[in-house]
Amino acid sequence: MDLLSGTYIFAVLLACVVFQSGAQEKNYTIREEMPENVLIGDLWKDLNLSLVPDKSLTSPMKFKLVYKTGEVPLIRIEEDTGEIFTTGARIDREKLCAGILMDGQCFYEVEVAILPDEIFRLIKIRFLIEDINDNAPLFPTTVINISIPENSAINSRYALPAAIDPDIGINGVQNYHLIKGQNIFGLDVIETPEGDKMPQLIVQKELDREEKDTYVMKVKVEDGGFPQRSSTAILQVSVTDTNDNHPVFKEEEIEVSIPENAPVGTSVTQLHATDADIGENAKIHFYFSNLVSSIAKRLFHLNTTTGLITIKEPLDREESPNHKLLVLASDGGSMPARAMVLVNVTDINDNVPSIDIRYIINPINGTVVLSENAPLNTKVALITVTDKDADHNGRVTCFTDHEVPFRLRPVFSNQFLLETAAYLDYESTKEYAIKLLAADAGKPPLNQSSMLLIKVKDENDNAPVFTQSFISLSVPENNFPGSQLTKISATDADSGRNAEINYLLDIDAPPEFNVDRRTGILTAVKKLDREQQEKYFFTALAKDNGVPPLIANATVFVTVLDQNDNSPIFTHNEYNFYVPENLPRHGTVGLITVTDPDYGENSAVTLSILDVNDDFTIDPQTGVIRPNISFDREKQESYTFYVKAEDGGRVSRSTTAKVTINVVDVNDNKPVFVVPPSNYSYELVLPSTNPGTVVFKVVAVDNDTGMNAELRYSIVGGNTRDLFIIDQTTGNITLQEKCVAADLGLHRVIVKAEDLGQPDSLFNVVIVNLFVNESATNATLIHELVRKSIETPVTQNIETADASSPTSDYVKIMVAIVAGTITVILVIFITAVVRCHHSPHLKASQKNKQNSEWATPNPENRQMIMMKKKKKKKKKHAPKNLLLNFVTIEETKADDADNDGNSVTLDLPIELEDQTMGKYNWGTTPTTFKPDSPDLARHYKSASPQPAFQIQPETPLNSKHHIIQELPLDNTFVACDSISKCSSSSSDPYSVSECSYPVTTFKTPVSVHTRPTDSRTSTIEICSEI
């Protein structure tokens, strides 16, 4: 069994040696009593740590001093550099090594851990404490008493008590001196086998007690240190009677072993000494030398009479394993006998192992706090197990009592590193109470246990977890601001601040929502409006208070429920529709568009007309407005009513809008002249009137509106002398040239007023009579001239030299009539001859003619311009072509004989046929003129384009189409198409009501004086084609 036990111990020791990889030792020598902050060494350099392979370290390299809790270390180490310095604690070798023999070395040991764990090393540093001369040698007492017999021979030696110096080596006791020896005594120093220096007093002269029985001197002891230290004691020598023999020990050196558990009173050894004297001089007295330590004197008892040494107090090998007992035997003489007793205290397994925990991670209130994120092999503490017993009784093993994620790794003899063996998890185990067990190899073995508390520090390694990752909720709109919607919640497996959760909304969250940071209550901070936004998607966050914080998110889906909080909305507050007055009944006026931002039945809108009338209807769903009446702008230009839009909500809401229907004018009214009031009115123009002077203003009106009522004025007939021009916009007739004597008389100007209607314009004409004379005193004559002028089928100016001479005027008129008659006869004759000559050609050309023929004057070349006209199929039918009136005026200057026979015929249209009025074909869908109105009516279109006229000059006219017709007497010329009746708005008794004109077959040539500047004769032929 002993063999097996020894094998087991050897295996453990071998394992310790094997596992010492990563453990080193380093020795330094320091002197005691060194001051603070003295550099001792540099571990970085001394251990060649610069050669450590470069590794990716979790933290910089650090040096940590490992020492027992509560212990004041004698050195400190810089964590970053590894430099070792002394501290303020006193380094006293005599105190540190009090139990060590005088010749032993004194060591101070500490451990240093090199961190982090990736490069962990444990360094055992041994400091050899060098002695300095900090203690003076001292005698046991300040007064030394010694007795010397008076018959002592010269050079006799007597032992003196030795001085004690705690220092060692050269710093210990080196020399003794006798002061004031009076030449009777001398002093010598001998060295014992143990190396101690013992003083001896030498008798140098004979003594005589009767002469002097007491001598007082001083003894000085010195050490060899620097500076040297010394002390003195008074030596008092008493001279006694003669004692011839000294005691002698049977054995001068005795070594004994005694177990440390020997009871008190146990005999250690028995000393034997003899003395040859007799009587009192033979009595021997045993006592301990003053060199015996106080511990030995406390533990052992010496019987002064018998010399028996016994155990005075219980022994403890661990306190002092051996003792030197220097025993002196004296018979009263001066030279006692010496015997050295060496007592070895043998070990008994009487000490349980001790467990010394030196923390690498500093504890807090005795508990190590270790992060749950600590990596594997994190060093927690250096466990040192010791046993004061010796040999196998002091061999200790250390282990833990149950499975924990920690292990003990041997590094030095009886030293273990406690490190993590597995990953820690705060959520599974929050703390560990590790029971360390230490057992020795004694029989029976003794063991010791110690508790090491480790609390796992929670790290923020768990993110919050929402109870619902997707949160869906419905909220009615129009909520009160701040109303609670729901409570979101999350949990965190961590603890403390790491488990404290703050709720917040992500940056994508709309400003309408907020969440309480602590409670997680989600609120709507604003009133929600479904019409603005119906659905909200945003992210809610749960963030813990860890460092760094961990965040979880959940999606929040909010649906806003509709309420009937919106009235129907018209696209316009007021609708203006524009429809043509010829829009048929039940046609489309326009479309009313209405919306309701609500949803479902709340947005179903029904339209109705509020006004109680049947003029219009509206479709309740589509909003189409249709008329039940026919429009006439001249009777009523607009219609106004209100439309109501009502939704289908449980509590319905409604809105009204104003609708105005404007009847758009159709160009169905021709212009009507207001000034002059009739064709028979006249205006006096003084011959002295300057050119550019407005002599008359023509005014016409049109019952239509817009462009249909905008008029343009022009002179289309008369004004043969070009004396007058007219402003097309204002109707102002202006004198163009200075009047001369030949311009006196009545001038007939035919003015046309034409509107700008689309697609076809309408016009009217009026005769403006301008009487150029100095006065208009004879109104009757002027009216007669006007009447005759109108009845005369020629466009001429009736001249008068003096308005006050009726005879002269009459003669001129008669001459003019005769000349005109002759001219007409000549024209008829010439025409007949030409027609007879060209009759075959005319018949052929008439077959190819399809269009109307018009002839217009060309005052520049005085040529005839003929215009085509459609050929009539049957003569009995009503005329389908336009009437062409031509006035042929032959002008002959009577006082110019050179110009006889030179006449020019000029064909001018003096009575213009009303042009065809186009019939407008309006679409059924009206329009408004507002671009943003819904479904506006289309623009009306014309289905009746203007008649196309083809002008071909020098086209021969068939004589049967030419008639001489007098000008109408009214002030209005109307335009009509070929089949419609012509209506006149004039009340003049001479106005024509139908397109039937009297047919005449004669031409009446009239001779009229021309302007003095024109020496040629002009003939104006008035023809009417029927």
From TrEMBL:
Q: Which GO terms describe its molecular function?
A: calcium ion binding
Segments crossing the lipid bilayer = 813-834
Q: Where is the signal peptide?
A: 1-23
Database matches in PROSITE patterns: CADHERIN_1, CADHERIN_2
- Which GO BP terms, alphabetically? homophilic cell adhesion via plasma membrane adhesion molecules
Query: What Pfam families does this protein map onto?
Result: Cadherin, Cadherin_2, Protocadherin
Q: How does it sit in the membrane?
A: Single-pass type I membrane protein
Query: Which UniProt keyword terms apply here?
Result: Calcium, Cell adhesion, Cell membrane, Glycoprotein, Membrane, Repeat, Signal, Transmembrane, Transmembrane helix
Instruction: Name the job this protein performs.
Output: Potential calcium-dependent cell-adhesion protein.
Q: What is this protein called in UniProt?
A: Protocadherin 11 X-linked
Origin organism lineage: Eukaryota, Metazoa, Chordata, Craniata, Vertebrata
